[in-house]
Amino acid sequence: MIQKPRIGTIATTVAMLALLMVRPAAAQESQTARPVGFADQIKAFLESDRNSPPPQQGILFIGSSIFRQWANLKDQMAPLPVFNRAFGGSRTWEVLHYMDQIVLPYRPRIIVYYTGSNDVNAGEPAPAIAARIKAFVQRAHAALPGTRVYFVAINKSPDKRARWSVVDAVNAEMLALASTTPHLRYLDLNPVIFDAHGEPRTDLYRPDGLHFHPPAYELFTAIVKPVLIDAWQQLGAAQTGLVPSLTPEQIKMSEALAARYDQSAAREQARLETFKNRPLGAVVQRSFDVNANYLTMAAEMMPESGYTFRPTPDVRNFGEQLIHAAVSHYSFCNQAGVPSGVARQAAPDLRAGFAKAGIVKALKDSVAYCDRVLAAASEAWLMEIAPKVGGSSSGLVEGMRAHAFMYNNVHDAEDYGTVTTYLRMQGLVPPSSALHSSGH
Fold first, then answer.
1. Ordered alpha helix ranges (H), 122-247
2. 153: number of Cβ within 10 Å
3. Cα separation of 261 and 429, whole Å?
4. Which one, of 341, 272, 311, lies nearest residue 420 by Cα?
5. Which of 44, 230, 313, 426 makes an SS bond possible with 306, Cβ 3.0 to 4.6 Å?
6. pLDDT in tens, 353-374
7. Could you tell me which residues are beta bridge partners of residue 185?
């Protein structure tokens, strides 16, 4: 009876001694934590996010200088909603360190990850490098369960020829993990940077034997883009859940953007001066002002990358929706004829594919045209009967000229209601809510 407690005590003592032997090592690891650099680049990203937010639920490229120097990434991946947050000559621990700032807040639906190359050059062993890459994948999945991560294999570049065995070991471990992990995929670009004799294609490399000339990125695009297009379509078809709520930071940013682009006060002042003693015109103009202002603000607030976003494959993207609104302005404001003193203006040739600046200008020009028509319209002219006014859904009927402008306002309200969904899915509070702090 005495022996058993002693055995237990000895076992406990051995375990405690073992723990004491481990803890100093762990403490030493903590005390000699690896340096984390590139704070200035992260600060610049965050400043850029406040002024021109990247697309929510888009495709994030994250990693080190191999991705950072992908200068034409956005153009080469168009129309996919990609954005790049690669920084410096980052190591795996630095990407982990900054995840909460430049990865998770964007809620990307796809993450394309290239890091580890600089770890190899720093002499890190393969198991440690792979462990930190796995930690990134695990953290991303915990925070964003529906997100797919693409690990891009570490390049076997000439500068690390002496450590290609480490590169091979990390890549092999990640390939094995990807084969059993539904939310992880493996992309290997090495085949296109080697020649037929198994030697690196030195023509693709800069003199440092690590970084690439532009033609290499064209080769990478040919591999990566088809994979991402297929994944984007799969994820879009599979996405049936609700979009996550906006963060306090996104709400504050939206409020600042809305305040910057709001023209309601200026439009109201112009309306009061233009429509003195013209109650019918004043009412029509007031309704137009509200909706046109919100549409224009939405156009300004959405970043360039969001203009190609569409919630489902069968609807217009954001830019196309604004083009539709601009063209409709000309249609409705010409529908009942134009008053004397105004030169009738047809809608310009607005086609899909315009960049943001061109679409914003086209929308503003269409608003200005309707403003001119209404400003020149007398009360008597607005009350005259026109043979055909109305919209395509309700049908054209005989009615007052004013009805054409009322239909225009209804159509604007419908268009604005549509784009509010696009804005929220891209991490922005619509301007009608952002201007009022209690309306989110």
1. 126-143, 164-178, 214-238
2. 20
3. 14
4. 311
5. 426
6. 578 999 999 999 999 999 999 9
7. 150
Phi and psi torsions of 177, nearest 5°: -65, -40
* Numbers of helices and strands, H then E, in the chain: 18, 7
Residues 352 and 320 sit within 8 Å (Cβ to Cβ): yes
The model's confidence at residue 312, banded by pLDDT at 50, 70 and 90, is confident
Within a domain: residue 29?
Answer: no
The radius of gyration computed from the CA coordinates of the chain, to the nearest angstrom, equals 29
Q: What angle do CA 348, 356, 375 make, to 5 degrees?
A: 50
- The three-point CA angle 291-294-299 to 5° equals 125
Q: What is the pLDDT of residue 253?
A: 87
Task: List the one residue out of 325, 408, 330 whose CA is nearest residue 360.
Answer: 325
Tokens of 30: 């903590």
Partners of 416 in the β-ladder: none
What's the one-letter identity of residue 244? Answer: P
Could you give phi then psi for residue 131, rounded to 5 degrees? -60, -40
How are the residues of the chain apportioned to helix, strand and coil, as percentages rounded to the nearest 5?
A: 60, 10, 30
Classify residue 362: in a domain, yes or no.
yes
Give the number of domains in the chain. Answer: 2
Question: Where residue 297 sits, what CATH number does that domain have?
Answer: 1.20.120.450
Domain stop point among 218, 238, 258: 238
Q: What are 111-120's pLDDT values in tens digits? A: 999 999 999 9
Would you say 184 and 151 are in contact if contact means Cβ atoms under 8 Å apart? yes
Backbone angles phi, psi at 151, to 5 degrees: -85, 120
Q: Lowest-confidence range among 18-27, 79-88, 224-233, 287-296?
A: 18-27
Spatial neighbors of 383 by CB under 8 A, at least 6 apart, are 280, 400, 401, 402
Q: In this structure, are residues 114 and 157 in contact, taking their beta carbons and an 8 Å threshold?
A: no
Q: Of 238, 258, 288, which residue is a domain's last?
A: 238
Contact call for residues 409 and 345 (beta carbons, < 8 A): no
* Strand ranges (E), 41-154: 59-63, 82-84, 110-114, 148-152
**Token code pair at residue 119:** 């770890």
Q: Is the pTM of this model over 0.70?
A: no
- Phi, psi (deg, nearest 5) at residue 242: -80, 150
Q: What's the chain's length in residues?
A: 440
User: What phi, psi does 396 have (nearest 5°)?
Assistant: -90, 130
18 in helix, strand or coil?
helix
